[in-house]
């Protein structure tokens, strides 16, 4: 589909550079955004790039009442040779559609998804921080816009993409984090919408996140909804445990988001002599094996922070320290390898990178 590019006021280079110097995470956005609309008669239509700004929505719009919304989180990286790279963007397109199907929303042709992202990123490439300073965060989103109260799927949808420079996800930077393991709150249950990247899952996690912060923890580790025993994931990242020469992570049972980073780590692990297991890991096993030293690392993975070491877990008011509480070798090696590929410093043996333009 042809994407029309409308005139937009452009921020001066000086201001862009100042904003890129200290972007934080998710607070600064570029000058333009992509938009397209869907209805049954026309399918996707009116694809255009317009000035970034508020979206007029009817107060009865489906998304505001019944949360028909799906989104993605991906990044564009600025390489030293001037090229702009995306990391496995087709996986985000696929997950966007899997989320949309679960939420009873229309899918987006993979080529159209890619065109929307690359056209916008190409136009906004001055907003991408240099290697070492961050990346351009990309947020494709779809919402139900039909103005109608009553629980049913919307007849009309808006697909839009916004982008903005980001630095470190955790204000502490690349330092081990402390995590609260909750028994009281559940993020998602099998049969629900946990595997979809949709706003409801994040709304469900906010209260536990607030309590975690009050306890001095950065995020929450959720247990399975049925037995309240097996670790699932953090509110915004997947989790791995290292036992000797094996790394283990929770299986994709339907309540966990299938992370692009999770999949990449599982592919890279054998290159470091590590076996990979997808299996149930109970919080009891973590406690026991952290104590006897056979669990030496726990780390969280996701697009925003790549790989983050978990130094300790707070569970039932007890502190479980992992290893020496610092950054383990495997966490560091995987972080270096992934960011090396993303920024073009290391060979891309798996052909994961796609260039913009
Ligand atoms: C709940 C949840 N789990 C895991 C992830 C990691 O996914 P990815 O590696 O695709 O960023 C995210 C981040 O998007 C997330 O929100």
Q: What's the total helix number?
A: 8
The name CATH uses for the topology of the largest domain is: D-amino Acid Aminotransferase, Chain A, domain 2
- For the report, how would you describe the main beta sheet? 9 strands, mixed
CATH superfamily of the largest domain: D-amino Acid Aminotransferase, subunit A, domain 2
Shape, per Cα inertia axes: globular
What's the CATH architecture name of the largest domain? Alpha-Beta Barrel
Helicity range of the residues? 25-40%
User: Topology as H/E string?
Assistant: EHEEHEEEHHEEEHEEEEHEHEEEHE
**End-to-end distance, in Å?**
17 Å
> How many structural domains does the protein architecture include?
2
Strand content: 25-35%
What small molecules does the structure contain?
pyridoxal-5'-phosphate
**For this structure, what is the CATH class of the largest domain?**
Alpha Beta
Which structural class do you get from the secondary structure elements? Answer: alpha+beta
Number of strands: 18
| Mean pLDDT, all residues | 96
Radius of gyration over C-alpha positions, nearest whole angstrom = 21 Å
Low-confidence segments, ≥5 residues, pLDDT <50? none
């Amino acid at each position: 589909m042809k994407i029309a590019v409308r005139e937009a006021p452009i921020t001066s280079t000086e201001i862009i550079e100042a904003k890129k110097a200290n972007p934080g995470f998710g607070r600064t956005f570029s000058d333009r955004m992509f938009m397209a609309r869907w209805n049954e008669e026309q399918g996707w239509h009116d694809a255009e790039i317009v000035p970034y700004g508020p979206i007029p929505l009817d107060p009865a719009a489906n998304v505001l009442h019944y949360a028909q919304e799906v989104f993605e989180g991906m990044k564009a990286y600025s390489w030293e040779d001037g090229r702009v790279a995306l990391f496995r963007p087709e996986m985000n397109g696929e997950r966007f559609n899997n989320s949309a199907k679960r939420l009873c929303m229309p899918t987006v042709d993979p080529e159209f998804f890619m065109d929307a992202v690359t056209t916008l990123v190409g136009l906004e490439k001055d907003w991408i921080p240099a290697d070492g300073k961050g990346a351009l965060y990309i947020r494709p989103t779809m919402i139900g816009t039909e103005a109608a109260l009553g629980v049913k799927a919307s007849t009309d949808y808006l697909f839009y993409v916004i982008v903005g420079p980001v630095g470190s996800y955790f204000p502490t930077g690349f330092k081990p984090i402390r995590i609260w393991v909750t028994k009281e709150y559940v993020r998602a249950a099998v049969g629900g919408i946990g595997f979809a990247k949709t706003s409801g899952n994040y709304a469900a996690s906010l209260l536990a996140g607030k309590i975690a912060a009050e306890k001095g923890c950065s995020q929450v580790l959720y247990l399975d909804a049925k037995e309240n025993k097996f670790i699932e994931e953090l509110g915004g990242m997947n989790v791995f445990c290292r036992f000797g020469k094996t790394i283990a992570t929770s299986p994709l049972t339907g309540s966990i988001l299938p992370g692009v980073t999770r999949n990449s780590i599982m592919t890279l692990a054998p290159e470091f002599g590590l076996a990979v297991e997808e299996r149930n890991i109970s919080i009891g096993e973590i406690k026991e094996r952290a104590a006897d030293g056979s669990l030496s690392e726990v780390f969280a993975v996701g697009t925003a922070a790549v790989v983050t070491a978990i130094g300790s877990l707070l569970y039932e008011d007890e502190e479980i320290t992992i290893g020496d509480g610092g950054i383990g070798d495997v966490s560091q090696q995987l972080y270096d390898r992934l960011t090396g590929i993303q920024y073009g410093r290391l060979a891309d043996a798996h052909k994961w990178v796609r260039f913009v333009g």
